[in-house]
Amino acid sequence: VIMPWPLSFISEDDFKNHVVSTIEKYGEKLDSFDIARFNSNIVDPIKLIFDKSVYKTSWEEIVNNEIFRQRDKSNNNDIGYFHQRIFQYIANCHVPENGTEVTLHDINGNEYKRIVSERKSLEKVRDLLCFCCFTSLRYSDMDALKRTDIVGGKIYVTTMKTDDSLVIEVNKFAAEILDKYKDCDFGEYALPRISNQKMNHYLKMLCELCEFNEPITIIQYLNGTRHEFTYPKWQVVSTHTGRKSFICNALAAGIPVHVVMKWTGHSDYKAMKPYIEVAEKTKAAAMDQFTNMFE
Question: pLDDT digits over 4-23, tens only?
Answer without folding.
Answer: 888 887 888 888 888 998 89
